[in-house]
Amino acid sequence: MIEIGLSAPDPGWLNGPGEQARRLIDAAYSASKSVPYEVNLRWVFYRLWQAGTLAYVNATPKLPKKVNAYVRLKSVCTKAVHFGILSPDWVIDDTRSMYGRSGESSIDAWLEELMESECEVDWWSTQSVYLMIAFEADAMRSQFEYYTEEFACRMWPMRGDPSNAYKLRIAKVVDGASRTYGLPVVILYFGDLDEKGLTIPEAAFRDIHAWSTADLKVYRVGLNPGDEERFNMPDIPGKPGCYQWEALEDEQARELIEGSVMEFLDWEKMGELKVEESKTTDRVQELLLNLMEE
């Protein structure tokens, strides 16, 4: 094997960013911290584009104005990271993951972790349907996790056309939920408003329906035709008339996600189960405390 050498660092700016770049960095960082969940760079871009922060960027012979504005934002923020102005994790990388085994450092540490855990029951047996969520933009996973945390919905990021293996996996989970709870299954879908965004769920759920024996219904919550006017959305850079989920303002996305989920839930039954979860957590933690003291 050969040890990897270190390349020379990219100096970016010799004396720091200029006034215009500094304003852009500040605006980008403020946008990233304006919501209670992690976001990616494209989400930040849409906030700045809609606010007019990038209006000064001009088109180039090769790139339309909006595409060039995104390139400009990415370049400035990358330099800001290497110059120490922005943290390397100021936005998330939604395309890469780390794999491998993990665990606690010792048995005692594991017991302590259990002590801090709370009882969480899959409470769908109290409901009239088993609800799941599917979405095209895996980049907004944290947004969907944040706004469905209380509901404990199983979520399926599609990331474009899903593979047959992935679709079969969804079909098997749908069948398993239907058998376990004796309930019909409802999937709420959220995707982009463009030709591909409209066809992805149709093709995917055609196969999922074919490979499932459950009573399954799928609803496209958004983006649907007309949402671009309803929410005054900007189009995708370089694709006029096309709209991405990330272009929604946070409150607009929350309205679509929470509003659609609440249509199918019995909130009172959910609250009753939460009380039982809390009581069970207290009983188990008392038993664990006695075990650790032995």
List keywords for this structure.
alpha/beta; Rossmann fold; single chain; 4-stranded parallel beta sheet; 294 residues; 48% helix; 4 strands
Question: Could you please describe the fold and organization of this structure?
Answer:
The protein is of the alpha/beta class and about 290 residues long. Among the domains are: about 20-80, no CATH class; about 130-265, Rossmann fold. The protein is about 50% helix and about 10% strand. It contains 10 helices and 4 strands, in the order ααααβαβαβαβααα. It has helices spanning about 20-30, 40-50, 65-80, 105-115, 140-150, 165-180, 195-210, 225-230, 250-260, 265-294, and strands at about 130-135, 155, 185-190, 215-220. A 4-stranded parallel β-sheet has the order 2-1-3-4, sandwiched between helices. Helix 6 (about 165-180) crosses helix 7. It is globular, with a radius of gyration of 23 Å.
Strand-helix topology:
Layout (H helix, E strand, L loop, with lengths): L18 H14 L8 H11 L13 H18 L24 H10 L13 E6 L5 H8 L5 E4 L6 H18 L3 E6 L4 H17 L4 E7 L4 H4 L19 H13 L4 H27 L1
Parallel strand pairs: 1-2, 1-3, 3-4
Helix pairs in contact: 1-2, 1-3, 2-3, 4-10, 5-9, 6-7
